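Go through this chain.

——
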Amino acid sequence: MDTIKEQLRSLRLPGMASAWETMMDTHTSSSLTLGDGLKILLQAERDIRLQNRTSRLLKNARFRYQASVEAIYFDAEKGRNKDLITKLASCDFIRTGQSVLISGRSGTGKSYIATAIGVNACLAGYRVLYTGMAKLLERINIARVEGSIAQFFDRMAALDLLCIDDFGMRKLNGQQLLDFMEIIEDRHAQKSTIISSQLPVSDWYDVLDNNTTVADAILDRLARTSYKIELKGESYRK
């Protein structure tokens, strides 16, 4: 029996090995048919692989906060519409390549809602990255210096969900504007993006400085088919 357990581990089947050990300890294997026992072993392996994949997705997402949709205090008057946020938490918008634009004053819950939706996406098996706008621009600069900018854009394009926080803290111009356009263009109608900002969406044009053609293209791709959440009220941090 120990040999079987060790062989399962050597074959990198830890779920089956653990389930087999439990079956031996509880003496349940003798009461099971071969088919029933095999079903239990396979289900145990499937469960642990799903658990490991989910843990890996959550770690790679680099969320700043711990958040869950269940912990959101819904208040339609303050923009936290239960029906809309629950719909987004189902991740249907990811399957259709749509985006989400969240705006509101500091402390109204933009980052929390974005994170909660992102966590649900990880639980559903999607690849997610959460990053601030400043950090994203820094990573782009590093990739350009290292000569790996094409690979960087490919990685961004491959993400099922890209969450960009703190958009609009400073204007984008020159190469920054073109780089942001590259990311949005690669993801348009293919992959989903969540962008949160203290500025209302109507003011985002002013952030995309000195190039009306590029600004028009970015906002057209972002705003045309996106879900919008406009949060109101005082900061919760108070």
In short: The chain has two domains: 2-60, 69-230. The chain has a mean pLDDT of 91. The first strand starts at residue 100 and ends at 103.
